[in-house]
C-alpha cells in the first residue's frame, strides 16, 4: 500500500517552496551564508544557466537543484548552488557530483559558486561534505555545506516554536518518513501541521503555499483523505475561515494533473513505443499547462527523439 502512495516527482514541491521562500530557506538551513547576503537586493534564479551545465551531466535520476544569483553585503555578486537530495538512499558519487557542478559553473561562467546540499534521506551515517584527492604534486579538498533533515528529529520543540516556513517543511518531511506504515497517524499529523499554520497567524498566501507542500508530501489513501477533509472542513467552520477551501481547488488541480500524466504517457507509448524510466520521470514533473501542450504536440511525433526534442525545448530543470 505504501508504495502506491509514493509520488514520482517529490522534487516539485521542494522547488516551489524554495522559490517562494528562498531568503527564509537560507536563514533556516545555512545562517552563516545568509549573513553575508544583502537581502534588500533582489535574488535571481538562474534556471537557464543551470540547464546549460546540467545537460552535460549524467542523465538518469533528476534532482531538485537551484542556481541563484545574490549580492553580498559588500556589493559583490555571488552564485549559490542549492541541491536538494530527495532520494531516501545514500549515493557513493554524491560528493564528486557536487564538485563537478561547482567546477562546471566556474568553467562555463567564470563564477565561483557556494555549494550547499539539503539531505532528505533516512541514513544517519551518510554525511557527505567534501570531495578530495591527494597526489605527490597535486592535491584538492573541496568542501560544501550540508544539512541533514534527520537531525531535526531531536530538535522538534525548536521546530514547533519557529515561524520560519521551513520549520513546517521539515516537520512535514520527517512525519511523512516516520508514518510510511502508520497512515492513520499520518492523517493526524497532516491535520495538526495544517492547523498549526492558522495558529501561527500566517497570511492567507503563506497558508496556501505551505498547505500545498504538506498536502503533496503527506499523501493519504482515498478513504483517509476523505476523513481528513471532513474533519478539516469542520475546523474551518469553527474558525470562520476559508483559506483551505482553496485547498479543495488545489486538490482538484492535482487530480487533473495526475490524470493528464496518465493519459499523456499512454498516448506517447502508442506513438513512440515504450518510454525509458528517466523520460517517464521527466514527464511526471511537467505542470498541467505543459502536459496540455505536450498532449497536442505528441500528435505529430513519430519517434522518441521527437519527444526528447520537445522536452529539451519546453522543460526547465
From TrEMBL:
DUF4351 domain mapped to chain residues: 253-311
InterPro entries: DUF4351 (IPR025587)
Stored PANTHER family: SLL1691 PROTEIN
Name the record gives this protein: DUF4351 domain-containing protein
Organism in which the protein naturally occurs: Nostoc flagelliforme FACHB-838
Top-level taxonomy: Bacteria, Bacillati, Cyanobacteriota, Cyanophyceae, Nostocales
Amino acid at each position: 500500500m505504501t508504495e502506491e502512495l509514493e509520488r514520482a516527482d517529490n522534487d516539485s514541491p521542494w522547488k516551489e517552496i524554495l522559490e517562494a521562500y528562498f531568503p527564509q530557506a537560507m536563514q533556516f538551513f545555512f545562517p552563516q551564508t545568509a549573513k553575508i547576503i544583502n537581502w534588500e537586493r533582489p535574488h535571481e534564479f538562474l534556471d537557464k544557466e543551470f540547464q546549460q551545465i546540467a545537460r552535460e551531466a549524467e542523465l538518469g535520476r533528476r534532482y531538485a537543484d537551484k542556481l541563484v544569483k545574490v549580492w553580498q553585503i559588500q556589493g559583490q555578486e555571488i552564485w549559490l548552488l542549492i541541491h536538494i537530495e530527495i532520494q531516501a538512499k545514500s549515493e557513493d558519487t554524491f560528493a564528486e557530483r557536487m564538485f563537478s557542478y561547482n567546477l562546471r559553473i566556474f568553467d562555463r561562467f567564470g563564477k565561483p559558486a557556494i555549494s550547499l546540499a539539503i539531505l532528505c534521506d533516512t541514513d544517519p551515517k551518510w554525511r557527505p561534505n567534501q570531495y578530495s584527492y591527494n597526489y605527490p604534486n597535486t592535491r584538492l579538498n573541496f568542501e560544501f555545506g550540508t544539512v541533514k533533515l534527520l537531525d531535526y528529529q531531536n530538535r522538534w520543540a525548536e521546530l514547533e516554536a519557529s515561524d520560519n516556513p521551513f520549520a513546517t517543511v521539515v516537520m512535514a518531511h520527517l512525519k511523512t518518513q516516520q508514518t510510511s506504515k502508520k497512515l492513520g497517524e499520518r492523517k493526524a499529523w497532516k491535520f495538526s501541521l495544517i492547523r498549526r499554520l492558522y495558529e501561527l497567524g500566517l497570511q492567507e498566501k503563506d497558508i496556501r503555499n505551505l498547505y500545498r507542500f504538506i498536502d503533496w508530501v503527506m499523501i493519504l489513501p482515498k478513504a483517509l483523505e476523505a476523513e481528513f477533509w471532513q474533519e478539516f472542513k469542520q475546523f474551518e467552520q469553527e474558525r470562520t475561515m476559508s483559506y483551505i477551501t482553496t485547498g479543495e481547488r488545489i486538490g482538484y488541480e492535482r487530480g487533473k494533473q495526475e490524470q493528464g500524466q496518465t493519459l499523456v504517457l499512454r498516448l506517447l507509448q502508442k506513438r513512440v513505443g515504450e518510454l525509458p524510466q528517466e523520460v517517464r520521470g521527466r514527464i511526471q514533473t511537467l505542470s498541467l499547462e505543459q502536459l496540455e501542450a505536450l498532449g497536442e504536440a505528441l500528435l505529430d511525433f513519430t519517434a522518441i527523439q521527437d519527444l526528447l526534442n520537445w522536452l529539451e525545448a519546453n522543460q526547465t530543470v
